Amino acid sequence: MSSTALPTSVTTVDKAADAGISELTRTYGAVIDDFNSDKLPDIFLGRHGFPPRFYVNDGSGHFTETQQGTFRETDRHGCAATNVNQDGLKDLFCTVRGILRNCSQAQPALHTTSGSHLRRPGPPVWSARAVR
What we know:
- The chain has 1 helix and 7 strands; from the N terminus they run αβββββββ.
- By secondary structure, it is mainly β.
């Protein structure tokens, strides 16, 4: 039986600032997926009690925040990505906390790349066209 020696020390290097994603914030989750169909992983950071961050991968190891101001501030507790409306682009489904008769309840929120939103009708919540 052979054995492999474990390293006696491990060195880590924080590259978040170099990648454009350095931030100390509260979150209950992030979604990493290709939101703009360029075959690169992008990042949606669903910040807890603050507007989320959406970072687009430029392919060089750097991310650029886009969509500032298009997502409303809310209490997101988790998000997932899939192509809900079958338009070929990823959509975000997030659970958010709401207040009903002084009790907390989870409420769904769907952000689609075509501009629809489960909880709020009206103008687009965000658009993949702006990140292409």
